[in-house]
Each structure stands twice: as structure tokens, then as C-alpha cells.
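pinned: reference chain
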Amino acid sequence: MSILFILLIVCPKPNSEDVLNYLNSLKSEEEVYQSIKECPILLLVKEGVARLYSEEYLEDIAKEGDWYIKYLVVPKLKNQELLKEIYTTETDKLLKEEAIKYIKDQDFLKIIARKDKNLFALPNIEDEEFLKELAIEFQGEEIGKKALYFIENPSILKETLRDLKNKDFMEIVFLKLAGTPYVKEIVLGNFSEEIRKKAIDYLDEETLKELVLKVDFPFKREGILKIQDQKFLMEFYKTTDVLELRGSCLENIKDEEFLKKVFWEFPELRDPALKNIEDETFLMENFDKFSDDLKGRAILKIKNQEFLKKVFKESQDEELKELAIKRIFDNNFLKETYKEENSRDIKKAILYNLNRGEQEFFKRVALQEKSKYLKAEALKFIEDEGFIKNVVLKEDSYYVKLEGLKRLSNQEILKDLFEREKEWFVKVYVLERIKNKDFLKEKELLEELRGDE
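pinned: its C-alpha cells
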């Protein structure tokens, strides 16, 4: 027994340099093997196993060593029966997973993939028909999902779709088939309508245009909605007699002159035609001719402040008025409107649109507004924490108090509020926001207050 070996045994934590020095001093593979058997410390085993090539030595260590030794030996084993024995008899999860990576026995792998649902068996399974069966049998489970990833044959993937119900699994198959002729075969093939429609999402545009032009193609609308070729869409719009298909074309046509030209042709198609019209002059000039729904969509595209004010003043539709006011940024108009308006939703929209510099206005609302909800909204925009503190002290509504408390962070103001406030819930809330842990012995006060509750 060498002095170096003795040092390794007696040293409580030998370093890698000690181990390498010792291993370099050995003259044969048998000496390395004997050292691992006699001194199975992790560093020695790790470095020693890397120097072993004899199947006999490796198998012997794998049969008798602790789990961590077997773990290090497994990648070098060729004995399939021993690898299967390790997987079958060992209980350590990491060791079992390591062993299965090197097992080639197809029947064994299939059994544990199905029985144990072991994901580590899948990379070595060569039978893609079996993987297809797993994916179908275990839909919604991880083993079925991973099985799909290891199927490379597009024909098998295509056929797998016939029995898939899980949408996530379908997505995996389509992603793997995207850009291949097989997607077109699915669209035109003997598959369910759901699968055929889904396949359209993965067709390239040239194929889509080819299919849409076919007289008997059943999914023209779905195909058109995926096409962006402007010339094709405008030409198709002109040649088709089907209103629904014309509407689908309009969804993707970006040429505003074309859209404005055909806008009035069919009342049913004005909604999709309006989608890509941004010409503010056209929208304002024709606003009164629009249906209520179209007005609601058009108003979201208009920035002209005078026009928006006009719509707000003249409209009897509360929803349209609210949409208009949300796009008006004239502070004087907003403040005057607030005084005259009764709708809580519109008043709230005004508060949100007002310039944050209108602090005096927000304060007046917080003090004078009858609605507790609007008072609370106004507090969100007030920067003066001293003012907010006084509102909290005077206000009866818990709703308003709570909103005010959320706005406070100044430590001195919080301490003053604690001293003056009578409501227990406010005191507790304030204490929880004070960072000075010594203030009035916070913990004792909290327990006392909660005890009184």
C-alpha cells in the first residue's frame, strides 16, 4: 500500500490534486480498479472510473458499489442485462434515469415507457409506430406529449392526428409538419373538419392562394383570413359573389382608397371595411351616416378635439359619449363638463384624462363630490399627502379612507395620522406602513388593537 494511498484514506477531505497525484502514480488499470474498491471516496471514484476500460472491472464495480459509484460507472457499461438489472432493482431515481439512457433493448424500453411512463426511455425507442400509440394512449399526459417530439416520420405524424383529441398535442404535430407538403394533404384529406381547419394555420401563403381559388375548397373564408397579398385580396373581392368572402378580404386589405371606394356598396360589409380605414376626414364627414356600432369604432380613430367635443355634446348614446370623452384632453372643457355631468362613468373618465397638474381641481372633487367612488378616484391623482391625511381624518366612508391610505408613504404624516385617527382599522393599516419599528412599540400595539377587535 503506497504512502499516497494511506494519505488519501486518513485525510478527511482529500483535494483533487491529491487524488490525481495518487492515480498518476499507479502503473496499471488493475491498480486503479483495486484502489476504487478499497477506497471508494467520490473524487477517487470519479477520476478512477474515467481511467477504466475493462468490462470486467467496470461490471464488478457496478454490481458491488454504492449507488453513486454505479452512477459514475453506468455510462461506460456495455452489458445490457446488467443495465436492465440496475434499472429494475435499484431504488435511487437518478441512478435509474442514468441507466435507462444506455439501454438499447427495444422490448424492455417499450415496457417501461408504457408501464412506468418513463420519459428517459423515449430517446432510445426506434419504433415510431409505438411512439404514435403512446401519444394517442396517453393524451394530456407528459409521456404522450414527449413521445410526439421523438416522432420524425411525417407520414406517421400525419396519421397520429386522426386519433388525437388533445389540442396541445395537435399543436405539436402541426408545428413539426409546418412547411411540409403533408399539411396540404391534411387540409384536403379525410380528416375531421376541426383538424383540417387547424391545418390551414400552417400553410404557406402561395398554397393558401392556390386552394382558395379552387371552386370546391370548403375553407375559403379561413384561407382568405390568412392571406396578406393585397393584389390577390382586392382581385378576389371583385370576382367573388359571396358576401362573406368579400368581408373576409376586407379584413386584410390595407389600401384605404380601395376600402373607401367599396365602403358603401354593401351595408353588411361596412364593419370589416372600416377596420383598416384611418382617414380622419373620411370618418368625420361620414360619421352621421354610420350605425351606432360603426360610430363606436370610428370614434376610436379620431383625434380631432373639436369634433370629439361635438360628438360628446350632441350624442344621446351614453357609451358613445364615454368613448368620446376618453379621447378629449382639453382641461377647461373637461372641468366644465365634470360640473354639468351626472354620469359616474363619464366623470371617472374625465378624472383620468385631466392633466395631473390640475391638483386644485382634484382636491375640490375629493372634498365636495357626493359620490364616495369619485372621491376615491380623485385621491389617486393628488400628490399632497398632507391634504390626503386630512381627507382620511374627516371622511366617514371606509372606501374613501382606504384609498387615501394607499396613497400615503411619508413617515411623519403616517405617524401624525396614527396619533389623531380614532378608527382602529386605520391605525392598524398605518402601523403596517410605518418603517420605524420602535414607533410606539409597534408589535405590542398591533396585538392590543387586534385583541380589542
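why pinned: The chain has a mean pLDDT of 89. The chain is about 65% helix and 0% strand.
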